[in-house]
Specification:
Shape: globular
CATH architecture of the domain at 221-329: Alpha-Beta Complex
CATH superfamily of the domain at 221-329: Succinate dehydrogenase/fumarate reductase flavoprotein, catalytic domain
Structural class: alpha/beta
Bound molecules: succinic acid
CATH class of the domain at 221-329: Alpha Beta
Strand content: 15-25%
Helix content: 25-40%
Length: 503
């Protein structure tokens, strides 16, 4: 079966929904998805500097959290366009929490210099953002289709002209003038992640197969506080950083505070710093978790602000109100991804990327808390605007299909990536990972894992969420981004690209 549309958007999280919504009035759009992505699971909120807050302060916090490795022009777009996108979302029906005087409630999270995180349903912000965008999209009549994208179609002139979608036993070909990947990160390439299992790096693998560049793949962010349920794999419940924003602290097995004296912002240090301290504490104590102590927070506040976390705790028989809860780091977010410009264009004509799967440089070496929903809203709109203004012409030439190969041994790939490319890495481990991945084929998970390993091996310094115990310091000789592409055998090759410091 074949269909034809103007634009295919792949992924129904905040970035994909925002893109489709922005295009609905001007283009014939098809929204393709295999699940709703990570958006409905996002807890903390949307960061937005408005009123007495200054977007430039937000930009500074973003770049500090990003270890000074952000693209500052794109960060400015993020922080300056963010409040407007938030206002539009509210106008579309999103219900954010409000204080008694009717103003938006704002909370604090790690790395932010002031309270600027707006939230919904206490800790169910992603679900509300998702609901509001979905409802708005339904009113537009945009076509949707459930299915996994298993390949891109490329014209002989080098342009992406469509996709192949698997729905049950059928494969459908969809021809389009532009394809937008909004498929999220690489969560399921690791054994344990806060992301749902459908988030597995397919977008990265599709782009690489199509000849696109990916960048900053070594910057995989681990959330310091996933609930330690005793499960060693799969999707772990998040314990939002906003719990620490309200006053909770991390403790080791002996009841000692982990973050005291480790960073001026202590438990609200940027996420990479906290995750590293938690990992080091667990290693030192030989434990598989640490404790999060929220007992100093009034029970009413906890009930009102964190119903999702309370329910997750209750499911494993712990009570957030009266006792410490067990937490451990888990894979959370890919700061790098498919290299794009500020309007989502990749280096392959006709192929665009947006949201977590894209690398615009706004996260640098470590994403600031609650900047990801914001990224989806801002850059989703930017891609939609770009494709409204200028949609590539139809390419009537010959084309060929670039279908993904199957992963023969996904569990093995996940185990290797988890073992060697977690919070702490070193050259010997990364080389071992490359060797162990070698016989595992060229399926999407293996491709993603090899890309992370290649980038992490190349970068011989530590910055942001890439921490190498054999190169424990940041070194200005590595003020370069690692760009990965596939060679003719579908193996990653890397090159270095100087970090631009232009504002
Ligand atoms: C959290 O609520 O801690 C996660 C928010 C985020 O990933 O930005």
């Amino acid at each position: 079966m074949t269909r034809t549309v103007d634009v295919v958007v792949i992924g129904a999280g905040v970035a994909g929904l925002s893109t489709a919504l922005g295009l609905a009035a001007t283009r014939d759009v098809l929204l393709l998805s295999a699940g709703d992505g990570s958006t409905p699971w996002a807890q903390g909120g949307v960061s937005a500097a408005y009123g007495e807050d200054d977007p430039l302060d937000h930009a500074r916090d973003t770049d500090i959290a990003g270890a000074g490795f952000c693209d500052l022009r794109n960060v400015r777009a993020l922080v300056e366009e963010g409040p407007q996108r938030l206002a539009e979302l509210i106008a579309q029906g999103a219900r954010f929490d409000r204080d008694d005087d009717g103003s938006l409630s704002r909370t604090l999270e790690g790395g932010h210099g002031r309270s600027r995180i707006v939230h919904a349903g206490g800790d169910a912000t992603g679900a509300e953002v998702h609901r509001a965008l979905r409802s708005a999209l339904q009113l537009t009549g945009v076509q949707t289709m459930d299915g996994r994208t298993i390949g891109l179609i490329k014209s002989d002139s080098g342009r992406i002209v469509g996709v192949l979608v698997e729905t049950g036993t059928e494969i459908t070909r969809i021809d389009a003038r532009a394809v937008v990947l909004a498929t999220g990160g690489v969560g399921n390439a690791y054994l344990a992640s806060t992301n749902p299992p459908t988030v597995r790096g397919d977008g990265i693998a599709l782009a690489l197969r199509a000849g696109a560049s990916v960048v900053d793949m070594e910057f995989v962010q681990f959330h310091p506080t996933a609930l330690f349920t005793g499960e060693t794999g799969g999707q772990l419940p998040l314990v939002t950083e906003a719990v620490r924003g309200e006053g909770a602290v991390l403790r080791d097995m002996h009841g000692r505070r982990i973050m005291a004296g480790r960073h001026p912002r202590a438990d609200l240090a940027p996420r990479d710093v906290v995750a590293r301290e938690v990992e080091a504490t667990m290693r030192r104590d030989g434990s598989d978790h640490v404790w999060l102590d929220a007992t100093s927070i009034a029970p009413d506040v906890l009930r009102q602000r964190f119903p999702t976390v309370l329910a997750s705790c209750a499911r494993i028989g712990v009570d957030l109100l009266s006792e410490q809860i067990p937490v451990a780091p888990a894979e959370h977010f890919l700061c790098g991804g498919i290299r794009t410009d500020r309007d989502g264009a990749t280096d392959v004509p006709g192929l665009y990327a947006v949201g977590e799967v894209a690398a615009t440089g706004v996260h640098g070496a470590n994403r600031l808390a609650s900047n990801s929903l914001l990224e989806g809203l801002v850059f989703g709109r930017r891609v939609a605007t770009a494709l409204t203004l200028d949609l590539p012409a139809t390419d009537h030439g010959h084309s060929h299909e670039l279908a993904l190969n199957h992963d023969r041994e996904p569990e093995r790939v996940r185990a290797i990536l988890t073992k060697y490319a977690g919070i702490r890495r070193d050259g010997a481990g990364l080389n071992a990972a490359a060797d162990e991945l070698e016989p595992l084929g060229t399926g999407p998970l293996a491709t993603v894992a090899r890309s992370v390993i290649a980038a992490a091996t190349t970068r011989q310094d530590s910055r942001g969420c890439h921490w190498r115990s054999d190169y424990p310091h940041s070194d200005e000789r590595w003020d370069e981004h690692i760009v990965v592409r596939l060679d003719k055998d579908d193996r990653p090759t890397t090159r270095q690209l100087l970090h631009a410091t232009t504002q």
